[in-house]
What does this fold into?
Amino acid sequence: MFRRSLITAVVITLLLALIPYPVLVHASQVTTGGVRVNRDVVPDEVLVAIKPGYMPYLRLNELSAFATGISGLDRVNRNLQVRSMQSLLGSESGNGAKRREFGGLERVLVIKLAPGSDLEEALGVFQAQDFVEYAEPNHIYQALDYYPNDPYWSYQWALPKIEAPKAWELSRGSPSVIIAILDTGVDYNHPDLKAKVLTGIDKDFVNNDNDAMDDHGHGTHVAGIAAAATNNSKGVAGVCPECKILPVKILDKWGGGTDDILVKGIDYAVQQGAQVINLSLGGNNCSKTLANAINAAFEQGVLIIAASGNDGYKTSMAYPARSPRVVSVGAVNQYDMETDFSQRDETLDLLAPGDNILSTGLWGGYMSLTGTSMAAPHVAGVAGLIWGRYPSWKNTEVWWALRYTTDPVTLNGNITLNEVTMIPNSSQWQLYLPFVANRWRLLGRLNAYSALQVITPEQVEAPPDMCAN
It folds into this structure.
């Protein structure tokens, strides 16, 4: 099938040319004014360890770079135009007593060179001296949060909120983990998606062909949230950088679909090996046919994640989110407040970012959308991270890790008595989820890093969906 027209390629090229990407440099070295600067070390600064035999001559009090008590050191400091020098640990311990030996580190000097000095040359000069045990750069260390080089990263408030950078140090998913996006299709030509989309097995049940190209935009946006290419110097980052995307088109160009097509989509995704199915869609009534499809997928180990709905009700959710075998996801804003449009009832599993979410759009573009549709793929992406780290886990265990590692949120609107109970001697309201797990718990916001730290998960209890309205 001819999937890429010349016109589409030209349009995408023109749109990308108009996008004002900031220029980012992510190598360990950068060029500034013709000078190579190493980002891994402090410029113009070295650590020099003095040999023990020379220490009695070294003046430690009010140390001067040119009157150190060691003539060779004074000469080197003058030649290198050293600006300052001090003892690394000082002569006293924290309690005012004379410092005891600590690994010989009391003999290390922190030497500040003249600006623009050749660091390697200076290190060579120091190392060649008889009185020097060793000389080395003052290396720089960073917290091991993985921050990608995607140009629009700074606009993606949701990923730092769920601690995705810390989570990526533990797992970035796996190409063997497939997240099926059952939606309006996916723009598989998008530069942030084309390397992630399984175009060989995509499916369109609306037009009844094998080309799940998006003609609406919703599915492309959802796919980008879950698993856009990350650290590729393009656009945005996805929650699960190494997971694959399976587009299954079950909603038409107006965003509508039916039970029969949705059931076909679920069946197809299961057949193709999807471990996660994202359903950023919903309706008012359940369907026994759809319920049976959900039950069948669940029993085959698939985790289905669905948006709770955007009508703002706090006592009811859309279907299939309210299915007892579906992970239901509501929305919070960047201040960890439940959005006014987000639906929930006593069976809501968790909340995730869903307000003003930047992600991929049609024709290679990017756009911000709001809704529980945007919250669900954040959870789908984290499910992919979990399976990337723990491939043998059951869907009930992944579900448990998602739900019971959440962060506190502020709920919007009234909380009815059938939803909460007051813990004795506590000021915290907690929600009870009788249809999924027989325990009391806090309703909270997704935290990817916390979910990945679970080592021995429990399992949620998910009785069959009987289509009870």
